[in-house]
Write a structure and sequence with these properties.
Elements: E1 3-7, E2 10-12, E3 18-25, E4 34-39, E5 45-51, E6 57-59, E7 68-73, E8 78-83, E9 92-98, E10 101-102, E11 106-110
Parallel strand pairs: 2-11
Antiparallel strand pairs: 1-3, 3-8, 4-5, 4-9, 5-6, 7-8, 9-10, 9-11
C-alpha cells in the first residue's frame, strides 16, 4: 500500500527556515521521480520542486529563486524539502507527490 506522509511544517518568522519530510511506504523513492507541491489559501495547487530518479534536483524559477532544495535519503526512504529565507507568500499546505499518489499535506505558516 502506497503512503506518503508529510511532516515538519509549522509556524516560522519571515527569513526563517524549515525542512519538510515525506515518509514514503509502498515503493522505493529512488525508483521514481518525486515532487513537492504547495497550495496557498484561496489559490490553485502549484508545483514547487522535483527530484529526479537519478537524485538530481531542480526547483522552479520565480518564487523559488534558489531558496528551496529537495533531496532524499534512500536508506530511510524519505524525501525532504529544505526551505530557506521564507516569506509570507510561502504560507500554504505542502504536499509530496508521486504519480497519482499524494500525501495529506503539512501546513507552513510564515508570520511575524
Amino acid at each position: 500500500q502506497v503512503q506518503l506522509v508529510e511532516s515538519g511544517g509549522g509556524l516560522v518568522q519571515p527569513g526563517g527556515s524549515l525542512r519538510l519530510s515525506c515518509n514514503v511506504s509502498g515503493f522505493t523513492v529512488s525508483s521514481y521521480e518525486m515532487h513537492w507541491y504547495r497550495q496557498a489559501p484561496g489559490k490553485e495547487r502549484e508545483w514547487v520542486a522535483t527530484l529526479s530518479r537519478a537524485g538530481g534536483s531542480f526547483t522552479t524559477a520565480g518564487f523559488m529563486k534558489g531558496r528551496f532544495t529537495t533531496s532524499r535519503d534512500n536508506a530511510k526512504n524519505m524525501l525532504y524539502l529544505q526551505m530557506n529565507s521564507l516569506n509570507f507568500e510561502d504560507t500554504g499546505v505542502y504536499f509530496c507527490n508521486m504519480g497519482s499518489y499524494w500525501g495529506q499535506g503539512t501546513q507552513v505558516t510564515v508570520s511575524s
